Fold this protein.
Amino acid sequence: MLLVPKQLQRAGMTGDVPYYGGRFTPAQAYAASHPKVRRSPPPDNRADALRSLQDLLDTGVITPEEYAGLRARLGA
């Protein structure tokens, strides 16, 4: 015998999506089960990478020492 809560036996249940008795709309359930991963694409070439590093230095995200180390890793 399979024990299933009554909320899961409703007609609105669709696959593995967590739709518990109307607490989530189908759109919310889909969004919860399919999280978006936002990643910035890597720079295409060395000039773009150097420009990005300079921008990070100008905005104060990295220190001049970190900038010099990252620039050396790029071979510039």
The chain has two domains: 1-38, 40-76. Residues 40-76 form one domain. The chain has a mean pLDDT of 76.
